[in-house]
Specification:
The complex is a heterotrimer. By secondary structure, chain A is α+β, with helices and mostly antiparallel strands. Chain A has 14 helices and 4 strands. Helices cover about 45% and strands about 5% of the residues of chain A. Classes of the chains: A alpha+beta, B mainly alpha, C mainly alpha. At the A-C interface, strand 2, helix 3, helix 4, helix 5 and helix 8 of A face helix 2, helix 3, helix 7, helix 9 and helix 17 of C.
Amino acid sequence: MLEPLFGVLALFPSADALLKAIPQVKERGFTRLEAYTPYPVHGIDEALDLPKSKLGILVFILASLGAICAFLFEWWTSTVSYPLLTAGKAYNGWQAWVPVMLEGTILVGTFTAALGMLFVFNRLPFFGNPMLRSKAVDEITRDKFALVIRPGDGGLDTSAAIAALRAAGGQAIEVVPAPHYRRAGLAWWAKVTAGIGAACLVAGYGTAWAIRTFPTTKPMVEMENQPRLDAQAPDTFFASGRGMQLPPVGTVPRAFMPVLATNPDQGGKALVDPLPVTARVLERGRQQFDIHCAVCHDKLGTGKPWLDSTYEAQPTDLQSSTIRDASDGYLYWVISKGFASMPAYAADISPNDRWAIIRYVRALERSQDAPARDVK
Amino acid sequence: MSVASRVRSALPPRFAEPAGGRPRVAQPHVRPPLWTVHRTLWALVALGGAGIVAAWFLAGAQRFWVNWLMWLVFMVCLALGALFLVALQHMTGARWSVPLRRTAERIAALTPWLVPVAAIALFSLPVVFSWTQPDAASITPLVLKEHWLNRPFFIIRLAVCLGLWVLSYVVLVRGSVRQDVTKDPSLTVRLRRFSPVFMILLALTITDFAFDWVSALEASWYSDIFGVYLFAGAVTTAIAATLLAVMHLQRRGRLPGVTGDHVYNLGGLLFGFTIFWAYIAFSQYLLQWYADLPAEVFWYVQRTSGPMGLVFVLLGVGHFFVPFLALMSRADKKSPTRLKWVAIWVIFMEFVDVFWLISPIQGGGIRLGWPEVSFAAFFVAAGLLVIRRALSLGEDMPTGDPFLAAGLDFHLR
Amino acid sequence: MFEATELPLPPAPASKRRRRRRGSDESFPESLRVEPLVQGDASLGKLDDHVRNLSEAKPPRSWYVALAITSLVGLIGVTAVGYMVYEGIGTMGNNVPVVWGFLIINFVFWVGIGHAGTLISVILYLFRQRWRNAISRTAEAVTVFAFVCAMMFPAVHVGRPWLPHWLFAYPNERRLWVNFRSPLIWDVCAVVTYFSVSVLFWYLGLIPDFASLRSRVKSKVKRAVFGFMSLGWVGNARQWLHYEKAYLLLAGLTTTLALSVHSIVSMDFASSMVPGWHMTIFPPYFVVGAAFSGFAGVVLVFAFVRTAMKLENYITMRHMDLLNRTVLFLSCVMTYAYLMEGFTAWFSSDSFNRYIFANYVFGDQWWAGSLTIFFNCVLPQLLWFPKFRRSVPVMVLVSAGVTLGMWLERYTIIVLSLHRDYLPSSWGTYLPTPIDFAILLGSVGIFLTLLLLFLRKMPIIATWEVKADIVHYQTHPSGPMEAEHA
């Protein structure tokens, strides 16, 4: 029995000799021919009736997909997932996405071209190629041109093939045996998977162990450790021994005139609402009340806090007659300085906003206890 | 045996010089006689001319001059682009383009006609240029540009540009035509020496022209790349026009030996310059859009908003995506029908580009009506007449060029 | 048995012979004659042996000495980077207002050099220029190594070099994406794409050459390595068909890439409003500048490699002449760009623009702008003379000048634009420190080390491309009518 056969091979000294030989061999009825050359020989694809490469279509499709994906990704990250305004441009400023889209297209296109050629069309890497075991392969990659007659469906008449090649001027004729493939079995795949898994585990645990065991040097320490003063830290430079200096006595922040009255009653007499009666003031008061006050005093000022379960103090009912009868100045003093467990808000709410809040509280009171004439 | 005669002997037999006579290639008349086309063109010229005169009286001076300028710029693009192709061939010493060079040279025959068109365009100075308007003296950027944008210097620059273009045309084209008769290879050497000089002159003059006649219409606007922008469009158009003319001659059997491979290469060039134009146009747009400087961006606001925005989109799609996709594959660049339509489309889009550059200075949407149609009829028909006449200039191929045989022997791999 | 038959070659085209042969054609101008791109008694086998020898034989002592020096210099640079990272960015010269100093200059410079390979290898391939074949491999190597150097700089310059992955868009615990509207992110995408594609393209070209080496190297280890790297390539005609198609597609795509990469680098500058940076000519001007410095770099490399590695038969004086013509052409385009910059700065009638450009040439660092113009515009004009285009000392002088000039150009653009901005109260100066210089020098060392290793360990000529050339010149005897295109 004949050994399984890859083909019969002959070498030719030049591309022209090879191109001349191909039709001669074809004439003798051998149709499955393959040529091997040290460089791409033009005209050989016609001689062997090789179909045109379809690589271009693959590259076009995938590169277009790359373009679309890159563009959609940029659109999604910059307008949906994390909307970000830059330089006053619209969220949908497509102009700025073109460069990355172009790069995405080219990246996908080039890798498709190269890897598609290698993996899909040429089926490389392939180290089991029987040609690699032939004597001729060293000549082919150097300066000789090979023609191989492959067996057709009905096998190959080796002696006829040898005769045909010799007649066409072929030299160093060689019968190349077929490779003995072994299919990769389940055990092989299991071994490979286990090996990769083991390598990952070793690498992961090894890295974790190394990071924990060996102290890492912090880079750019000098940048972090440059001389500076922390806000409350002591320092010997100033006579006061403080790092941060106190402002000169009597310094007043802008728009924050201190309340000089020492108790609410005194304040109630001294402080007068300076704001005009407008809807804007009331609206501002509502907004500020909802931010600062409503959390304890309730949105209607009923003193039923939202924080019932955790907050033990009992906030004042702003609808009560005590408050209703208290003067605006009294309330202003309380907001500014705090009262009982209510903290001072002087640092958080500007004077005008305090007055606006009081105006709104008066409106709330009126809303819950409206005189009959209001209803008319 | 002289080299010239050896070249001839190397040529296909149809080039063999008949005893004593000019080696004229026999022209089989496959198409109907010329005169119908010819007469139609003259009729169009007459109609268009009448329309132009009417436009002067009825459409207003501004619209008239804007149209005139658009066609001046378009003609300059076509003529200089063709001259560039001729010089490029000499400079690179490329072989494949030798048989096609004469066709480009014939399109460059538009060059001398630029002189009257540009001279008449000078009368538009007081009408359409922002720096000649009475209020220009009160606009600081314009005052600061006074040393450049003043009438005498402007006219001198135009005269210098026109002079250099006509001179280059005479040297490049007439020299090449003379070689048909003398067969003197030393002419090739001289043209090769002149070509780099021409390239330098072209770079400077086309930039100056772009700045003076397009950008300076709105003189406060500026963009460094503008000369290259116009150049890119010019070369794209010229390649398309050459492609059309080559295929026209080829159909009539006047370019024996010129194969689909030559045309394929022209298609490749068209493809390349389409990308180049898009690259230049988009970078200019992107940078001015991004920086958003008032001194620059107003120009784009005028041209990308309102109805003009549609032209802007058309330009992006038509001047780039259509030819780009139409010429992408190798088979596309080999199909004559496709090449013909793409070439016509590209020339049309170049005019849209010029329209987009110049027309918005009138404000008020897209000005497209009978005056524009008349101008188009007149200039297209007149231009075609000039090129048709030039199609009898010298031989159909530069038979005196020592590289013609090598050029005809061009095969794609 | 198969007899190794060398193909008969036409006699060497010695100039005397040729003149006698064409003695009758006195009228034919000498300048129109074309020299073949392969000279001497070249044959496919000889080329193969030569290239294999270069990567297999023991290198000469001078190679080891050079390698020792360059790697030492590279080490100095790495040490300087390490010191800078440990100590902080203050060890370098950049500070407000010149916040982009040497690191960004070097980055742009190396990216520029890195354009040589692609442009030579790819654009000339698209134009079917045969003369690219013999030089493409080394030019591509120059690209890859220049990019290795280039990518080091932004990585160090980001401030916290241990967080380089923050430059990329990936889902993270911070729920942040990168800002895709920022030119700096475009730059990251462009440079990373360009580097990976360059490596891919380089490797793709190497596969048939690895296959050739696999068949003939003596050392078993090398045989195994080359065998693996060649992926089992056997040169089947069908493989070649797809291979050439892939090469063509890659060439087309990489041309666009090469145009876009330095354009995007230029947009780091041009999309800002800094006078001297915001110019619409920047993208093409940067691309041309990159090609300019890249070609000059390649001329420098080949001026030495050609003779040192006895490649005169494959990389002829005509190759150098053509390279130098390209340098000259690019120099003219650069001159145009400089002219346009200056003119538009004036034409913009913006006083800051006008000032910045006067400051380039007449300011306190006038030498930067002036030397840029001298090296990039004036000096290369020597190459108009054919004699100089073929003189190795002149081409070394010009190319070295261009390389230096292009570095200075980036210095001018970055430092001189930043140190005078819109607010005169924030004007300042820039003084590089020794650390800056050490890092610059180190990058040169790393580049040269990699190049030296490549020259002696890898196939430095794309033999499969030059083999086709050899056959072409054998079958088409050289002459004026010769069809040079592939």
